[in-house]
Amino acid sequence: MPRAYALERPGVVPYDAAIELMRLLEAATLADPARTTLLLLEHPPVITIGRNGKESNVLARRIDVRHSDRGGDVTWHGPGQIVGYPVIHLRQHRLTVRMYVQGLEEVMIRVARRFDVFAERREGLVGVWVGARKVGALGVRVRRHVATHGFALNVANDLEPYRWIHPCGMPGAQATSLSAEVGRQVPMEAACEACARAFEEVFDVVEAR
Question: Which of 30, 44, 162, 187 could potentially form a cystine with 175 if both were Cys, beta carbons 3.0 to 4.6 Å apart?
């Protein structure tokens, strides 16, 4: 039987405020491991550097830069990109970290296919790609079996800021978006809805009403 989860869609949230909210949810989940929350939001433009990231992968500091305790290297967030922050107790869901990461990739793959974009994994790399172009990134943190941070899926965002970084620490890596791939504007509302439904399917949860 699917477990209940809470879906929160607060809109455009500054990075620091979103992390503070995520930390509150993490504390709540540590206290109640049965609790699962999915935050779906957008950030104002920001570059984040993960635990394994290098400052040298930021090529131009034209917007705010934040260090993050998630895994991964350097990425960009901004309007038109869906950022998903699930806060979930992995042991409660019988998930290893590897299974969880693959599950987040699967969420993005399903959303992309909902809009006729064939996205897939690439051997040895984390994230979701359309050919050689990256459409979805992810980075997580796990503490006492509770996973935080999550994924970022390019829907209808400006791709120019990716020229200011080595995306995910990969010089020359190209980024794309669902809108760029299909040649039309993919509505954010529809993409958010698809994210929620894909999350439910992949992790066998149902939204608490």
Answer: 162
